[in-house]
Amino acid sequence: MQLQQLAYFVAVTETRHFTQAAERMRVAQPSLSKQIKALEAELGAPLFSRARGNVTLTPAGEALLPLARRMLADADTARQEVAELAGLRRGRVRLGATPSLCAGLLADALARFHRDYPGIELLVEESGSRDLVRALARGQLDLSLIIMPLQSDDPSLVTEDVLRENLVVAMPSHEPTRRPYQRIADLRGKPMVMFRRGYDLREATLAACRQAGFEPRLAVEGGEMDAVLRFVEAGLGVAVVPSMVLDGRPGLRGVPLAPPGLTRTIALAHRRDVEPTRAAQAFRATLLAFVIEAGQEGTLPQGVELITH
Q: In this predicted model, which residue has the larger pLDDT, 137 or 79?
């Protein structure tokens, strides 16, 4: 079994078309098909069903796909690790982060890292925490800032709590409120703007409402962070968001939740079975130094506090 064969297999899986896969891999289509057949012969089972021109995975192909992706990711990591031996002058860090962090303190931490290690490429994946956990497990990321606790006790990840942030009710700044805070029960019957599936904020909001004894009334759902905030500005409804994302948005204000409120913990995570590359370790050190300094100097975003160990 060759890595090239696995790369061809994954390309066909993602394009569902042999010719398009060959174009992506920049090889002739007959060569790609020959390598796929050789892989199937070695494994002793067909990987694709080609009925009526439709290319779909067989059960054997379904079983191979996550393993192939992980093997390719690990091989790529190995190549990057060797390239980094020249004093971190080259390399790559694949970092995952939630949209609230990408729009907040992460940009400054990335700027510091780029200043110190200008030759290291930074690839940032912005997504919901659940999606980032899956990407970590598949080997598509080196490090990720995720939201704790994990929805399942995943032994494949090592996590390190870094920050704690408050959640607030975002509403248009001109909208009046009777109290300086909101209770979850006050959201009963109010139109709400809800994140798409895969966002921990969606699950946290739904769980809090259900614990208060009601199902939220969703005016619109399925948005990313920027879209959700824009929908709230437009008056479509309110949303539960991290307080830090409201900085620089004069059209919105965040109303604190009544004690005990809602908080979430931000952790830095990586795969347990793969030692982070030297570039990833350098980024971890830079990020932790940055947030510690910000915590000590009182410059963390509003509603965010450092978790001391």
A: 137
